[in-house]
Design goal:
This protein has 8 helices and no strands. The model has no long low-confidence stretch (mean pLDDT about 95). By secondary structure, it is an all-alpha fold. α4 packs antiparallel against α8, α5 (about 90-100) crosses α6 (about 105-120) and α7 packs antiparallel against α8 (about 135-160). The chain has helices spanning about 10-15, 15-20, 35-50, 55-80, 90-100, 105-120, 125-135, 135-160.
């Protein structure tokens, strides 16, 4: 059963735990810039798992990606669109990728946020190719993972240049 994205409310969302995650704990319901709100939601997720150490952080990020393929597919199916803007689990995972081994400090949270949103919105090659050519839950997820990788590399470059 699909539902119009405009008819989704928080009450409907919490009845579907998979979609609750897919819509970024409700942040994807933002009427404007749901991807940005999804990325903001990723910051506390990052702050929760970053202290666990790099190996566990990477494991949890990979797990969030793998599980996210199904989460995004089921959420998109529920909404009835191929890649609805309300599905923001991919932004959460993309930001987590951006922040792998990030330098400490609030300014790096902000820089990572800006860089990830830049690459996610602009979609330079190969991100644009993935966005256009891969579909389903995997397609929803993979372009944001690559945006996260490009943001991660950019952030490391900025750090080493300072």
């Amino acid at each position: 059963m699909s539902i119009s994205q405009s008819k989704i409310n928080f009450r409907e969302l919490v009845k579907r735990p998979v979609c609750f995650f897919g819509l970024g704990f409700g942040s994807g319901l933002a009427p404007k810039a749901p991807g940005t709100f999804g990325t903001i939601t990723a910051i506390p997720v990052y702050l929760l798992i970053e202290p666990l150490g790099l190996a566990l952080y990477i494991f949890l990020t990979v797990l969030a990606f793998l599980v996210g393929i199904s989460i995004c597919q089921q959420s998109a199916d529920w909404i009835g669109k191929e890649d609805p803007s309300a599905v923001v689990w991919d932004e959460i995972v993309g930001y987590l990728v951006t922040m792998i081994a990030a330098p400490q400090g609030w300014q790096w949270l902000f820089i990572g946020f800006i860089l990830f949103r830049f690459f996610d919105i602009l979609k330079p090659w190969p991100i644009r190719w993935f966005d256009k050519n891969l579909h389903g839950g995997f397609g929803i997820m993979v372009d944001d993972v690559f945006a996260g990788l490009m943001a991660l590399l950019s952030m490391r470059l900025i750090y080493y240049m300072m």
